[in-house]
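Data deposition worksheet. Section B asks for the primary sequence of the deposited chain exactly as it was used as input, without tags or linkers unless they were present during the calculation. Section C holds the resulting structure in token form. Section D is free text for depositor observations; keep each observation to a single sentence. Incomplete worksheets are returned to the depositor.
Section A, Depositor: J.P.
Section B:
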Amino acid sequence: MVIDTMIFTYALFGAEQEKADSKQILGKANRIIVPDSFYSEFTNSLWQWVLHKNVSEITALESLLIIEVLITQTVETKTLSRKALNLALERNHSVYDSLFVASAIEYDTKVISYDKKLLRTFPEYSIHPRVFLTR
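Section C:
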């Protein structure tokens, strides 16, 4: 499965239900694929949590180590760029999210995401965490 950045963030720092669901997703997914752009998104998310949510710098740095163990495959953005741009233009959606969708298409799977707009825009390539957990 391709796992959206917020699943990782919620697994570490989310509210009780989202945290539990996200941890369960990471444990249930037999393969975790992300585009390499994930790392900049995740690091930016850590920065925001440190600034606004009382997460310590040490915890943020340790989180980088944790995710490295969980991710089984990283897809290079340069191999996804053309497909991601086409998807973004066709569906009027951000390239950042389209990189995750392009990864899912490349590996014939879906993106697990809480992002309502992504789920609405790419229903054939995405799945909500609660749906994934009930399969």
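Section D:
The longest helix spans residues 38-52.
The chain has a mean pLDDT of 95.
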